[in-house]
Amino acid sequence: MEARAASGAYKGGMSTSELPRDDLAASLAARRELGPDYDAAFADAIAARIEQSAAVRHSAAVADERAERAVALTVLCVTLGVSIPTSAIAAGYAGLSGLVVVWAALVAINVAFALRRRPR
Questions:
Q1: Can you tell me the distance from the alpha carbon of 120 to that of 64, in angstroms, rounded to the nearest whole number?
Q2: Does residue 120 form part of some domain?
Q3: Is residue 28 part of a domain?
Q4: What is the per-residue pLDDT across 49-60, written as a single tens digit (0 to 9) for each?
Q5: Is the dihedral of CA 55, 57, 60, 62 positive or negative?
């Protein structure tokens, strides 16, 4: 078992899903029963679990950030695409005041998007 622990193949009987408190307590009890000879293997298994959990959380955070950037880019592109014809139409019918109203609305939309609450 120590050879597997040194090679990183030993996982202490723990699954790859999140480690419930009961499983951790059982692992601690087993470590106490096995004695100090298996402390290194137990520590390696716990460290591997912590590293795996951190990697999963980091990957999820990166994926969320990419999705958020994609949504922001979409809003930007739609706003720019809509701004050109609406500016021309508003300026043609209402002059400068129409143009100001259209641009104020576009700015308000983008500010509202930037200040919205993001789910965590």
A1: 10
A2: no
A3: yes
A4: 888 888 888 888
A5: negative
DSSP string computed for 67-95: HHHHHHHHHHHHHHHHHHHHHHHHHHHHT
Tally the domains of the chain: 1
The two counts, helices (H) then strands (E), for the chain are: 4, 0
Separation between Cα atoms, residue 109 and residue 13, nearest integer Å: 53
pTM for the full predicted model: 0.52
Residues of the chain falling short of pLDDT 70:
1-20, 119-120
- pLDDT tens by residue, 94-116: 999 999 999 999 999 999 988 98
d(CA 53, CA 34): 26
Q: Residue 7, CB half-sphere, CA atoms under 13 Å: how many?
A: 6
DSSP code per residue over 31-74: HHHH-GGGHHHHHHHHHHHHHHHHHHHHHHHHHHHHHHHHHHHH
Q: For the chain, how long is the longest CA-to-CA vector? A: 86
Domain that holds residue 108: 2-115
- Contact criterion met (CB below 8 Å) for 91 and 98: yes
